[in-house]
Amino acid sequence: MTRLENRLALVTGASAGIGAATARALAQEGARVVLAARRMDRLEALAQELPGALAVKIDVRDAAGLARALDGFDFDLAVLSAGMARGTEPLHEGEPDEWQEVVDTNIMGVLNSLKVVLPPMVAAGRGDLVFLGSVAGRAVYPGGNVYCATKHAVRAIYESARVDAVGSGVRFCTVDPGMVRTDFSRVRFRGDQAAADAVSRGMTPMAPEDVADAILYAVTRPAHVNVGEIVLWASAQASCTMVHRDA
Ligand SMILES: NC(=O)c1ccc[n+]([C@@H]2O[C@H](COP(=O)([O-])OP(=O)(O)OC[C@H]3O[C@@H](n4cnc5c(N)ncnc54)[C@H](OP(=O)(O)O)[C@@H]3O)[C@@H](O)[C@H]2O)c1
Fold first, then answer.
1. Ligand 1 in contact with 31 (CB < 6 A)?
2. If I label 224, which of 18, 43, 88, 163 is the partner at 20 to 30 A Cα–Cα?
3. Among residues 206, 202, 141, 213, which one has the least CA distance to residue 179?
């Protein structure tokens, strides 16, 4: 028997990277997965692969649209992976429009998603809510500034949700990775693939499947166990500022 049989899961940010790998991992364990993001072509291609999966177009910044798109689903499990960064300029050289985009996606996007999935879970007395934090939510690094601020906020939202919903039967987990090979850096460097590739030069970052595996561990524990926080580092990364690179 698969461990997530009869569970309905939402994965935001399922069109790429960690979200897509997590959707695959949940589906392999028998969950029916609602794949949510903006790029429908990618979601539909993934939905073809995964039995019972459904693709739903959402922009996590649009609270009303999100609520409409996810109306009528009764989720047992939600993984909030939609997120992004823009640039690594020093804070004093940053662009307010880009700050807004990152704040709206990573903070309001998480809150908007949580507003849709959490109240029914609390009412039902069960559910798993997994946040995609980051080691950038535990420390800052040069040029990380606003992205780090949003991931610190995700960590505070995770802690707040656990405190506010204690005794409800809902479990909360934040999974906080270091360097993972995804489209994240290409988005951050505004499409500059060479700059994105340089991030993991001379070292082996984690694969999105490594993070998905940790998420799967958290949501398959017995009901009385809440895996709260998982920090994952690439073996060559000691902190947000220290990475060993081969010559
Ligand atoms: N990669 C890393 O090194 C790393 C490390 C720590 C934490 N994280 C976190 O992990 C999460 C996933 O990132 P990733 O590495 O998998 O990056 P990715 O490959 O770029 O995937 C990001 C996902 O977020 C979705 N997304 C972005 N903005 C959205 C919006 N407004 N509405 C709906 N979906 C949106 C994207 O889908 P669409 O563009 O199709 O909408 C995509 O599916 C993020 O929260 C990121 O901060 C990543």
1. no
2. 18
3. 206
Tens digit of each residue's pLDDT (9 = 90 or more) over 216-225: 999 999 999 9
Q: Is 158 a catalytic residue?
A: no
Q: What is the pTM of this model?
A: 0.99
Helix and strand numbers (H, E) in the chain are 9, 7
Instruction: Give me the residues paired with residue 243 across strands.
Output: 237
- Domain limits, the chain: 8-232
Residue corresponding to tokens 């040069």? 142
Q: CA distances (Å), 137 to each of 35, 111, 190, 244, in order?
A: 25, 16, 22, 21
Homologous superfamily of the 8-232 domain (CATH) = NAD(P)-binding Rossmann-like Domain (3.40.50.720)
pLDDT in tens, 127-173: 999 999 999 999 999 999 999 999 999 999 999 999 999 999 999 99
Distance separating alpha carbons of residues 18 and 95, to the nearest angstrom: 27
Sign of CA pseudo-dihedral 85, 230, 208, 33: negative
